[in-house]
Amino acid sequence: MSASLDRRLNAYRPDLADQRLQGQVTADRFTLGEPARVAVPVADLRPKPDPVSGIDTQLLLGESVRVFDRQDGWAWVQADLDGYVGYLPETDLEQPAAASHWVTVPRTFVYPEAELRKVPLHALSMGSRIRITGEAETRGTRYLLLEGGGAVIARHCLPLGTAPAEDYVTIAGLYLETPYLWGGRTGFGIDCSGLVQLAALMAGHSVPRDSDMQANFGQPVERQDLKRGDLAFWKGHAAILEDKDTILHANGHTMSVAREPLDAAIQRIGWLYGQPTGYRRFL
User: Which alpha helices (H) appear in the chain, and where do they start and end?
Assistant: First the structure.
């Protein structure tokens, strides 16, 4: 009964399943789960509770999840942002709390106080959600003070939900030269569909996580009608049209986010993955 459900987007196991799937799947027990939020800068979400299992995707500080199970140091969760299901260390989570701001540059540091000469506590990626309790200024540089301690550069953040740019392609361009990382979804490392999703999110648009999901999102468009913001797809790969002839994409060829002529990419990719499977427009 559960064979047709995508395990990436539906929380079900033989012993336990999301209560919202009752009647669609067979399980010993059903639960609504409990809310939590990510407590670390980057949480790797895996298909199995195993540290050597591959990364499916990543969750950012402050993003909310629903926890269905906690066992042997692992939590089985579903991300509220895109519905992705997987396992992460239980210590990556904390009680839910409302954020006030988010990071709107690819990367920034959290300092122990409002002083850039101090050794940073850690770094945060674009999209990280934080709660601000005050402000400070040191030698003309404004800082936002974080709940729980620490400070970030004020101009690296905006009130939660405020877009750093209206055009998501402009945001994607900020990631040029960012290292490619399979399953990555941060300013420290990102994959092709992660770039699409995160850039779109920061411009106020909700897009599915993986390239096969994105390839069925929005409306199909013909090659001759392509424009800025459209998406080009190959089997297992997605690229953003910067204009009708140029793409931005996180790719395993340069192992980075790169700009490339569309025709050159089609020729280069063709020998291994074939021709593009289609083009889509979601805006």
Answer: 168-173, 192-202, 211-214, 262-273
The answer to whether 149 touches 131, Cβ cutoff 8 Å, is no
5 touches 79 (CB < 8 A): no
- Which amino acid type is present at position 88? L
**CA gap 45, 55 in Å, rounded:** 6
> One-letter amino acid identity for 221?
V
Burial 173-205 (b: 16+ CB within 10 A, else e): bbbeebebbebbbbbbbbbbbbbbbbbbbbbee
Domains observed in the chain: 17-94 (2.30.30.40), 101-159 (2.30.30), 168-281 (3.90.1720.10)
| Angle in degrees, CA 114, 201, 49, rounded to 5 | 85
Taking only the tens place, the pLDDT of each residue in 102-126 is: 999 999 999 999 999 999 999 999 9
Q: Whole-model pTM above 0.85? A: yes
